[in-house]
Design goal:
Length: about 300
């Protein structure tokens, strides 16, 4: 085996040991197919008030502009599918936010992986990315053969569906590159039909400014009244398009203790949420991604859900 193959196998084996679901590698180069798609999406204002999506257009499409001398993008998936879900009589939180904020959990694993690469292979330079820099996570994961981008614009795999986080290491080491997999959505339109706000405007295109996740997390102003009664009780994020996807029948329970929710989160009823105090909010969401919306934001969302 040549050194590229040996290094690639080493990295993938360590990624598995660290708890990642899967690991794929692609060449660090300009994302030609994504460029016109991203430009069109931005020109149609589908990013709503997410101004940051307009920034660093070149860096979003070219990892060599983010990490000097980069040769490879290592894409990694980390499962977050929970073993227990919230009380049926509850306002809902997206499953990814049940436990400790994924940014911290994954960043630590990525640092460990980069350190391993440097110890085992030598002077390799790179950066870790978890959904916090201008990197098109899903495009890289698809290019690296980890799945295909479904009609709901999430990454999908035949083996475990779509309930996982995507992260990257961009490094200046040449590796063996994986090939993309084929699309297996077929004629299915379950996600398009089920979206409560009709945010999936056509197969593979989501108007972010109509998405419940956007309204409940990203939007800082008041939620437009025209969407009243269409939120299906989601107060932070939304999983509808994933919940109805046939491929998620194959979701497997995660094994990351940090993603387990507090018992209070699972047992709270709508009445409990409506009466939540700031102290309870801080206790339940101490290390959670829900802190992004702040207590006032969550209250705004809950009030919007009331009949």
């Amino acid at each position: 085996m040549n050194s590229k193959t040996v290094h690639t196998e080493l990295i993938k084996t360590e990624a598995k040991r660290l708890g990642f679901l899967s690991c794929g590698v692609s060449k660090a180069e300009f994302l030609e197919e994504e460029a016109p798609r991203l430009e069109k999406w931005l020109n149609q204002n589908m990013h709503g008030e997410m101004q940051y999506m307009e920034n660093h257009f070149d860096k979003r499409l070219d990892p060599t502009k983010l990490v000097e001398g980069s040769k490879s993008v290592i894409s990694l998936l980390l499962n977050y599918y929970p073993s227990n879900e919230q009380n049926i009589d509850s306002y809902k939180i997206s499953k990814y936010a049940y436990g400790t904020d994924y940014h911290f959990v994954i960043k630590d694993k990525l640092k460990d992986l980069l350190q391993f690469i440097q110890e085992e292979i030598g002077a390799v330079h790179g950066r870790a990315f978890v959904d916090s820099a201008p990197v098109l996570d899903k495009a890289w994961a698809a290019k690296s053969g980890l799945g295909w981008i479904g009609k709901h614009s999430n990454l999908l795999t035949q083996q475990v569906g779509s309930f996982y986080f995507i992260a990257e290491l961009i490094i200046d080491l040449e590796l063996d590159y994986d090939a993309p997999v084929t699309d297996h959505c077929g004629t299915c339109t379950a996600c398009i039909d089920a979206c409560p706000t009709d945010a999936i405007v056509e197969p593979y295109v989501v108007d972010g400014s109509k998405c419940i996740s956007y309204f409940t997390i990203e939007l800082k102003n008041e939620i437009p009244n025209e969407f009243h009664g269409k939120f299906d009780d989601w107060m932070f994020g939304c999983d509808v398009c994933q919940d109805v996807c046939p491929w998620n029948r194959f979701s497997k329970k995660h094994s990351e203790p940090l993603f387990n929710p507090t018992p209070e989160l699972l047992s709270m009823t709508k009445k409990d949420w409506e009466e939540i105090t700031e102290d309870v909010f801080k206790k339940i969401f101490k290390k959670s991604a829900v802190k992004r919306t702040k207590f006032s934001g969550l209250q705004r969302n809950i009030n919007f859900l009331k009949p």
